Amino acid sequence: MTINVTIWNEGWHERNEPDVAERYPEGLHGAIGQGLVDHLGDNVKVTFATLYDPDQGLPESVLETTDVLIWWSHMRQEEVEDDLVARIHARILRGMGFIGLHSATKSKIFRRLMSTTCCVRWRHGEDRELVWTIKPDHPIAQGLPEFFSIPAQEMFGEFFDIPDPDELVFLSTFSGGEVLRSGLCYRRGYGRVFYFSPGDQAYPVYYDKHIRKVLANAVDWASPRTGIRETDYLSRRSEPGWIEMALATGEGR
Fold first, then answer.
1. What single DSSP character describes residue 134?
2. Structural domain boundaries of the chain?
3. Residues 161 and 117 sit within 8 Å (Cβ to Cβ)
4. Residue 106 above 70 pLDDT?
5. Cβ contacts of residue 167 below 8 Å, gap of 6+?
6. CATH number of the domain at 3-116+180-222, out of 3.50.50.60, 3.40.50.720, 3.40.980.10, 3.40.50.880?
7. Cβ neighbours around 78 below 10 Å, total
8. Helix (H, G, I), strand (E, B), or coil: what is residue 193?
9. Closest by alpha carbon to 183, among 108, 107, 129?
10. pTM as predicted
11. Which of 23, 99, 165, 210 is most buried, by the most CB atoms less than 10 A from its CB?
């Protein structure tokens, strides 16, 4: 079945910084979405949303039909309504995948998922970042080399105030000697969560072929895999033996 992906981008930079609008003429979300389509083709349906859309881009009708939510935010983190954060959190616990990107570390939803401050060291400058694949057998690492280079990027470094991940897939090193746990997997309820740090708006990171491969793999990994989609569960949970059958056959996926 097709994976329904909603890419939520704050959208502030493209509206207020001409260099970002020039770098990402279709928005950061547009570049991310094109990468997903290039890799996943007809297996993915992409919907775009921003903070400036009605209902901050995520009305109930969109959120309830999203299999994987990709989240990019930076300057307007606190403007996201608490009620929306609660609804996103509930959807993740019920099985929706969530992928947080770059400065989404300080988003309300990521902090709620982690139950920590999620503070990270940072330095804005043209740092070279090497992204090391340290769990090559993980689904998100499939098709990725031992390491790949991002020539210019904002530095994020340890200490990164997060819980120990269920799986650490990528580790980044920077030209200043800093390191960062940059590709992290968690389970929250029935939902899968992936955080990936590369992706500052000041650099063309989301056009990089390796970054696009990581995100495509992450969408596939984070999408519901038990066969028990929320709509199926609510309508069929009373059927004798249905849950066992769905787990065994992968129905719904």
1. S
2. 3-116+180-222
3. yes
4. yes
5. 135, 138, 184, 185
6. 3.40.50.880
7. 10
8. strand
9. 129
10. 0.87
11. 99
- CA 249 to CA 201: how far, in whole Å? 42
- What residues have CB less than 8 Å from 249, skipping those under 6 apart? 227
Cβ-contact 199, 218 below 8 angstroms: no
Rounded to an integer, what distance in angstroms lies between the CA atom of residue 103 and that of residue 83?
21
> What is the Cα–Cα distance from 231 to 1, expressed in whole angstroms?
14
C-alpha triplet 31, 33, 37: angle, nearest 5°? 120
Residue 94, phi-psi category: left (phi > 0), alpha (psi -120 to 50), beta (remainder): alpha
Q: How far is CA 12 from CA 27, 168, 183, in A?
A: 10, 31, 25
Structure confidence at residue 18 (pLDDT)? 94
- State how far the alpha carbon of 220 is from the alpha carbons of 19, 25, 134, 194, in Å: 32, 26, 19, 11
Q: Which tokens belong to 127?
A: 């740092």
Give the pair of three-digit tokens for residue 179.
Answer: 């390191």
Rounded to an integer, what distance in angstroms lies between the CA atom of residue 184 and that of residue 150?
Answer: 18
Across the beta sheet with 97-101, the strand order is 44-50, 3-9, 68-72, 97-101, 191-196, 179-188, 167-174, 121-133, 147-157
Q: How far apart are CA 62 and CA 25, in angstroms?
A: 24
Q: Does position 102 have pLDDT exceeding 60, yes or no?
A: yes
Q: Determine contact, residues 120/161, Cβ cutoff 8 Å.
A: yes
Question: Coil, strand, or helix at residue 150?
Answer: strand
